[in-house]
Amino acid sequence: MASIFKAxxxxxxxxxxFIDSRNKIxxxxxxxxxxxGDVIQGVVHLNCLVPFHARGVxxxxxxxERAQWEEWKYRDAGEGQPxxxxxxxxxxxxxFFCSHVPVYPHEGTVxxxxxxxxxxxxxxxxxxxxxxxxxxxxxxxxxxxxxxVYYCKAVIDVHFKHDLHHKCQFIINEKFDRNVxxxxxxxHKTFMFTPGRLTAKVMLDKNVYxxxxxxxxxxxxxNTSVKPTNKVTVFVYKHLELRSHGEHxxxxxxxxxxxxxxxxxSFYGVRWLPFQIxxxxxxxxxxxxMVKCHYFFVVECDIPGAVxxxxxxxxxxxxxxxxxxxxxxxxxxxxxxxxxxxxxxxQPDNQVSSCNSCQKGxxxxxxxxxxxxxxKIYCDDCTKKTTKILNxxxxxxxxxxxxxxxxxxxxxxxxxxxxxxx
Length: 422
Hints:
The chain is mostly beta strands. Helix content is 5%, strand content 52%. A 6-stranded antiparallel β-sheet has the order 13-14-16-19-22-27, with no helix packed on it. Strands 5, 6, 9, 10 and 11 form a 5-stranded antiparallel β-sheet that branches. A hairpin with an 8-residue loop joins strand 5 (56-75) and strand 6 (84-104).
């Protein structure tokens, strides 16, 4: 019986057509990137040096997503036994579309020569963006991989075998359904034992970026307390969500950070925080079923002796055309407006030993107080008056001012603006 099956196998193998390796096929497309609903225009190029028999030429165009990860789980090991820990592997995939386009549906002998077969295909609408990411370590419960892939494959259809083919990937940019415009976020915090609060407003120049772009973040800080800010840090986080057979897995991690100097107590002004998005970041993809990825920026104000203030800004990272080819050159340097302060500088405590008004020396019982209008240090007797100072950003509660500044401050105060950097 085995000999019969072997003989049948040999007959099929001998009947199969083999294409000489000197024959070449190549598929070209009019673009390297598309969005859902676009029409792909392409050409299959065939260079035949040795004649062969074929049933035609076709193009396969496919898009799919695939997610897999590992995690430790527990299961019952039997009555009276402790639960058993085991490593569970999740894996699932979903096809968005798979189409076979008959480019040349005729059977015959292909003679020596060069052939060009044009084709077109309309992509389905609302496709997820191209994506690939992997990390962790397999077999210890931290491994994961995720991909959203699109490719076009040209095939010479030969009896029993498809021995001549060429496949190329192309990029799908997820449709960005919002207008490209500046993005805004804000947050504030109060302090347990210190009056006043810190308000931070962050404005981004855009709400969508490409890998390698320079982000221009404008930070407007209004600190009505005497708490300083040690430093300001910008973080870029990636949030990846995978799904498989009804279960889901989330992974958030930092992909970039940039640190900047902090600011003094009672600071009110604008700081510019430029930073570059890493060039190797995978794009956002949010419309898939199994693979979702989005990014957000966090501006963190580091406050000593208190919980830090964070401002979170959501954004989208789009896939550029060079994602599967060569990276672009570094972007040109960005010229920023200067940092500015809308309040007079805060006089440091270690520079003053006596009141700026009555000249009495400070001691354990005669404490230092700052005037919120001029920023200078006075004793308690010379700063007993309080008022809101609207032009300096003290618009919520009355603040301490010196006798010399009270008249102007009670009328809103003088508008102040000082360039801090250029």
